[in-house]
Amino acid sequence: MTMKKWVQAFGALLVTLIAFSGLIGLGHSVHAADDSLAKVKSRGVLVMGTSPDYAPYEFIINKDGKNEVVGMDVEVGKAIAKKMGVKLEIKQMDFDSLLVALQTGKVDMVLSAMTPTASRAKSVAFSNVYYKAKQYIIVNKNEKDLYKDKSSFAGKKLGVQTGSLQADIAKSQIPTSTQLGLAKVPDLILALKSHKVDGIVAEDPVASAYVQNDSSLAAIDGKFNLAGDDLGSAIGFPKGATSLVKVANETIAEIKQKNLFPTYLKTAGKDMAGNVQNTSMLHYWSYFAKGVGYTLLITLLAILIGIPIGTLFALMRLAKNKVVHLIAVSYIEFVRGTPLMIQIMFVYFGIGLLVDIPALVAGVIAVSLNSAAYVAEIIRGGIDSIPVGQTEAARSLGLSQRQTMQSVIFPQALKNIWPALGNEFISLIKESSIVSIIGVTDLIYQLKVVQTATYKGVQPIVVAMFLYFIMTFSLSKLLNHYERKMQHDN
């Protein structure tokens, strides 16, 4: 392809993306009147977004064989939904995806121990602060005597949750420290135990929860300088949703008047204690089994969808029609040139803004379309590997172009590309783990759930590694069987 055609293709793609961005912006233009509360009441459901890895605010327990999100924030959410006269629906995702979900209409509110910072307030309408807590630093117990407060961590490495208040205050008040930012608190705990960080900045209730359930940890008062009414935890709503904010503020006032927060924390403590009564990995087999099931389902659907689409784009790229060829090249190069994680978020949050797409469906679509681009190149390479004489011989015998491709070229190409296709299928099992960022309960997601529930970092990882190995090894053996069979048929 010439440079001019590449520029034309890139320009067309850029215009398309800009136009799509314009549609998104148009969909979020300022409303003449606030109808946010009316919409929630008409649906009968209030959708709450949260990252359930932050006990005692929000975490997961197994109740009657099913995962259930519980914690203080969930109780607040239930109270708000009750006041509105609707049901509460909880959507789970990574903490740093919550505001995107709010801005794209995936959730009605974010209740996840979020601090109403000035930067967030530019794009989010916050309720009044409903809970304030001190900021502590979690350390390994055998190193507790080395630290007194935040000043002891000058020049040290601190773990913080990505996009959190803790990340901001650690950066501003301990400027000589370095940070390791991770999306999940269990990952930070694992980093602490493996001495990747010297401490973790966390709110008092969170620090207490981990220390009480893990004898190898300790917590010290960081003595951070916290001031202002904007500090603490608040509920995030879309900009302009004043009617929702009003109901939330009324509910928060009632909860404080009745002094219900100590009760909420006490209930959360009981749930946490139930989680750690039996922390053996065997006890959590159903979690891992569910994760394996979803991982295999996503992989299977991605293969079934990706192969036909990939084959189509391979043929389009080999076509003599310049327009068809350009479309195929643009698609393949664009998909291969962007991270799968971004593609998943675009499908779920971007396209999902126009059409409500469930997380699982969005994950399958993104993984399938991503795989199709790689399958297309594999198939194209296989077709190109067949000598031109094969095509000429078939056409001289009276076979049409379609018959030649179907009966002569493609069967030979399939034998050549089978190992490469097999590698792509095996990679799909592992790459599908990225769908956990939008709340799909695949194996990686369930791994995080078990880590949060048991306060164990390494054991769930070992189990997940073993399960991934079983899946990939089994598929590898199956693919090798058919490869030997095809070679034998020669």
UniProtKB/TrEMBL annotation:
One Gene Ontology term of the molecular function aspect: transmembrane transporter activity
Protein name, UniProt field: Amino acid ABC transporter permease
Keyword terms: Amino-acid transport, Cell membrane, Membrane, Transmembrane, Transmembrane helix, Transport
UniProt xrefs under InterPro entries: AA_ABC_transptr_permease_3TM, ArtM/GltK/GlnP/TcyL/YhdX-like, MetI-like, MetI-like_sf, Solute-binding_3/MltF_N
One of the GO BP terms on file: amino acid transport
Protein family per UniProt: Belongs to the binding-protein-dependent transport system permease family. HisMQ subfamily.
GO cellular component, one term: ATP-binding cassette (ABC) transporter complex
Residue ranges occupied by any ABC transmembrane type-1 domain in the UniProt entry: 292-479
Membrane-crossing segments per the record: 291-315, 346-367, 457-476
Native species: Lacticaseibacillus brantae DSM 23927
